[in-house]
Write a structure and sequence with these properties.
By secondary structure, the chain is mostly helical. It has four helices and two strands, in the order E-E-H-H-H-H. The protein has helices at residues 27-41, 50-69, 74-81, 85-94; strands spanning 12-16, 22-26. Belongs to the transcriptional regulatory Fis family. GO terms for molecular function: DNA-binding transcription factor activity; sequence-specific DNA binding.
């Protein structure tokens, strides 16, 4: 039986420095750095619905990529994501991807 051995450690961001050095770091580190940068730029301004903003920034490209990977097969995409097909359809509709 196949045992899935991938963890969040497998989700990495690859960058190339100005000295052409290639580095990889976990996606979560990039998200954290982006959030810190965003908050620093607020300059004391109030922000609301940050949770929804961050989810949308991650969820939409996730859905797009998974739908391309599965060639539009919603059942397979939902299974890969660990959600039911109805939830997937609702999310696709939310982002105008249906």
């Amino acid at each position: 039986m196949f045992e899935q051995n991938l963890t969040s450690e497998a989700l990495t961001v690859t960058t190339v420095t100005s000295q052409d050095q290639i580095t990889q770091k976990p996606l979560r580190d990039s998200v954290k750095a982006s959030l810190k940068n965003y908050l620093a730029q607020l300059n004391g301004q109030e922000v609301t619905e940050l949770y929804e903003l961050v989810l949308a920034e991650v969820e939409q490209p996730l859905l797009d990529t998974i739908m391309q990977y599965t060639r539009g097969n919603q059942t397979r995409a939902a299974t890969m994501m660990g959600i039911n097909r109805g939830t997937l359809r609702k999310k696709l509709k939310k982002y105008g991807m249906n």
